[in-house]
Specification:
mainly alpha, 0% strand, globular, disordered N terminus
Length: 413
């Protein structure tokens, strides 16, 4: 597919918006079972802990698919690849909406894993290709604002639709949204030819990058710790503060709004002070679960703790992606794929560990584990000397890619 729209600054920001909506769609699809876990488990005749596989399975597969998509894409235009993945996302949501058993549901979630890995691997590094260097921080915040917006609108709206019309309609609505986002990409996304062929050797080279290694470990600790508890946020809100089920949607809206604020604050600050930003995010994820443990038994306290949790976690995606782009400025797509892998291994591990802890020890243990993982991330930030340096150099227009023979040049614009 070839782009027909002109490569003007205004058009590029429309393209950034389209990428943001793509991340919103895929993350909402991935996280949709969080707000619907109990009714889905009941309808498919399984336990709540086992139903957590709907989160952990696609996340684990996304970690595998992210580098495979980047390597196998070869010379394929990234616009075409994004459109193909959005088409698969439509199919995945329709499959989930009509799933008669847990097995069919998990099969649909395998497709979600493919879409998640591919879309994130490509979208994560597109800011440096679509806008000038001075605007990369804002563009990255907008792209990963789709992740935070999935918490603000996606997951709570899914929970609300599930309460009003049933959980199957929530997945059906996501299929319609993914189709609309696909249409937008076809209309506004410029051509995005690859900057060079990505090989396993380049992945091996970047795995020796100390700053990138540290960023990947931080990603795993913060994301896994978060999902140990957040995967089961619905039963947590129902049992600890004692909220009625009808309050879960509004509470998740509040959590997501706080996450949006955290996302844009982190995006602005991380562009200049990346290590400090990630350290503060990690500290926030230590304190938020402890707040829930200390004041969460009251409804007001539980709501406040959830808002604090949202602010802290809202900055994770953009803060860590900024770390990755600065750690590997000449290999952003490779770094992005590795980041997506670590992020989704964190989701899968956290959801699985959270399910085990929930079934064996109860919800309170999940909160302690979440805080413990964040403590380890704080220690890693403080102890480490290797950190990110700078963004890739200013990009060229999308129609004029620049690359070196080893594919480690600055990404084209």
């Amino acid at each position: 597919m070839q782009a027909h729209a002109p490569s003007t600054p205004r058009h590029r920001w429309w393209a950034v918006t389209a990428v943001s909506l793509a991340t919103f769609s895929v993350v909402t699809t991935e996280m949709l079972p969080v707000g619907l876990l109990t009714p889905i488990a009941e309808a498919l005749d399984t336990s709540t802990g086992t139903a957590g596989l709907m989160i952990s399975l696609p996340a684990l597969l996304a970690a595998l698919f992210a580098p495979l998509v980047v390597i196998s894409a070869g010379g394929l235009d990234r616009r075409s690849l994004l459109c193909a993945l959005l088409g698969l996302l439509v199919i995945a949501n329709l499959g989930a909406a009509f799933a008669p058993t847990l097995g069919w549901m998990l099969a649909a979630r395998v497709l979600v894993g493919l879409c998640m890995g591919g879309i994130w691997a490509i979208a994560g590094g597109l800011a440096v290709r679509l806008v000038a260097t001075r605007s990369v921080g804002l563009a990255t915040s907008l792209i990963f604002g789709g992740v935070a917006a999935a918490s603000v609108l996606g997951v709570p709206l899914g929970a609300l639709i599930g309460e009003l019309f049933g959980w199957r309609w929530a997945f059906g609505s996501m299929a319609l949204l993914a189709a609309a986002v696909l249409a937008l990409h076809l209309a506004v996304m410029p051509g995005l030819p690859p900057s060079g062929t990505t090989t396993l050797r380049q992945f091996g080279h970047q795995l020796g990058n100390r700053a990138l290694q540290r960023g990947l470990m931080l990603t795993f600790l913060l994301v896994a710790g978060h999902f140990i508890a957040f995967t089961f946020v619905r039963p947590l809100l129902l049992s600890v503060p004692g909220f009625d089920a009808r309050w879960v949607g509004p509470l998740l809206f509040g959590y997501g709004a706080a996450g949006m604020a955290g996302n844009f604050l982190a995006g602005i600050v991380a562009a200049r002070r990346t290590r400090l930003t990630v350290s503060l995010i990690a500290a926030g994820l230590v304190l938020a679960p402890l707040l829930f443990l200390s004041i969460g038994e009251s409804r007001l306290g539980g709501a406040l703790a959830l808002l604090a949790w949202g602010v802290a976690y809202g900055g994770v995606s953009v803060g860590l992606m900024t770390w990755m782009m600065k750690a590997a400025p000449g290999a952003v797509e490779v770094a992005s794929a590795l980041y997506v892998g670590a992020f989704n291994v964190g989701i899968a591990s956290g959801a699985w560990l959270g399910g085990q802890a929930l079934d064996r020890l109860g919800l309170i243990a999940n909160l302690w584990l979440t805080s413990g993982f964040a403590v380890a991330a704080v220690a890693l930030c403080i102890a480490g000397r290797s950190g990110p340096t700078s963004f890739p150099s200013s990009p060229a227009p999308p129609s004029q890619p620049r690359s070196t023979r080893d594919g480690r040049s600055s990404a084209p614009g």
